[in-house]
# Entry
Amino acid sequence: MSPFPHPGFRRHMLATLIVALLAIPAWTALAGGPAPQAAHVEPSRFGVVEAYYRPDDAHALGVGWERIIFEWAQFQPNSPDEFRTEVIPDEWLRAAQESGREVVGLLKNTPRWASAIRELGAPPFGLDLPVDDPGNYWAAFVRQAVAYYGETWGIRRWIIYNEPDIRPGELGWYEFDGEVEDYYQMLKVAYLAARSVNPDAVIHLAGMAWWTDKAAGRAPYLKRLLDVAAQDPEAREHGFFFDVLMVHTYFSTINVWNVIVETEGLLWHYNLQGKPIWVAETNARPSHDPRAATPPHPAFSVTLQQQADYLVQAAALSLAAGVERFAVYRLYDDHFVPGVTEPWGLVRWDGTRRPAFTAYRTVIRAFEGTLRAQWRYSDRSSLVALEQPGRTVYVMWARESDPVRFHVAARDDDAFATRVGVFGTEHEQTARRVPGVEGRWYVLEAPGARPDADGAVVVEGSPLILVAEGAPRAVWVEVRGARWRLR
# Structure
């Protein structure tokens, strides 16, 4: 039996685990105060997983990149003499090119013939041989894939496996059967093999599930992996054999920030703080959708509105934490079985779009030009200020069940600002006087968050977006009559 069930089942099991862990503190101390500034990057910042299922929808969103799985076991199912390029149809790659989407390939799954235990997640034979030795089957496959898809389609970014921190027997599925040392060797071999045929190849570290280690009381997989790399005398000159670090985070608004900051802390510990971080998977799967029957007893109760709200919050917090690129898991509910599999897609199995599709389009249009970002917060309020050429975009929401009134300072020469809804509707926002306060202010009312049945807030309150000219201004918040300035 394959250890790789449908992705919807995987995410359901992981969500169940996360429920029990939301209150667990981060392994390292969380950073306070201003967030690191996000570097200016190319317009391909926002992406989706597997856009090829619905290329027209991906084009309508305006995403700049997508992830596609290049499964080794499908390219070479019977022997190392095969290389079946038809497993990735040319039309997928052509559609991405024509729409301006960069394809990021994910390499994983050893063929059964290439390992002793004959499982897809096993480390392969020959992993310790030189990368130019034909007996190192993994190196040979990586060289062939990187050379062919680089020359033919211009693909240069490659993720090495997916969520290797999930151990066999912990969640009912797993992606990698080896130990941390085995994954490090897979990474090292892939890096050296890829660079041997394409010096411009960019190697991405696998995204981690993260929560399985916390549940098991282990140090984070990333820390253990970097510990192994630090013992390798060749690692430092090759940047620990990866160029970009991928992050997966789901459901909880605050965990977007926590996981990224914890990851950044580990990179700093090993003097790797220059490595870009991408949020490669994120979403809050809706458990209530009248157009798609969902499995009973979901780990989290998430409405369609909350899924949309989460994507706005997650994108804003990611930019504030210095993330270079961001992607949603996933564009489309492929192979959806009503009442059995989980509805992660921005687009339903029948081709209709969930509200989150429109919300993500709002994110891409409103957040794309961000040069710098900062998160200002209190226990009950969040504000992310996105600095863009000639303007600032303020993304504001309530963190708890109390509604929050935000006051954004207006300049004397302001005519108005623009209020943008989660779903892209625009309204003129005029400044007004506030009793007992000097000057004029843009005043916006953010609704309180909806707690779960047990009283916990997972997805925080519905965001407000204000676009105003110039640099960031002073912002005050008001909750139950008490006012204070966000700094």
